[in-house]
Design goal:
The chain starts with a strand and ends with a strand. It has a 4-stranded antiparallel sheet with strand order 1-6-3-4, with no helix packed on it. It has a two-stranded antiparallel ribbon with strand order 2-5. The model has no long low-confidence stretch (mean pLDDT about 90). With about 80 residues, it is mainly beta. It has no helices and 6 strands.
């Protein structure tokens, strides 16, 4: 998911019909200091990937996508 808003997070309920998601999940985000940031030869690590764990409600999983980030969610299934 890409949240293009410069400063507002977006909360979303994840619909996974017929599937049983695990409660322990992983989020990976691509982030930099501002929406125009990019890596260059002078600043190789200005934009980076960060990994975090989050707990989902197994019956109604939701996630709040941070502002101006690309996010990849990994949700194990039972």
């Amino acid at each position: 998911m890409v949240n293009r808003h410069p400063d507002a997070p977006i909360e979303a309920t994840l619909r996974l019909p017929g599937l049983r998601p695990a409660t322990s999940c992983t989020a990976q985000t691509v982030d930099g200091p501002d929406v125009m940031a990019r890596n260059t030869f002078e600043q190789l690590d200005l934009v980076q990937v960060a990994r975090s764990e989050w707990q989902a409600d197994a019956l109604r999983p939701s996630y709040t996508f941070p502002a101006h980030l690309a996010t990849l969610l990994t949700i194990p299934l039972h």
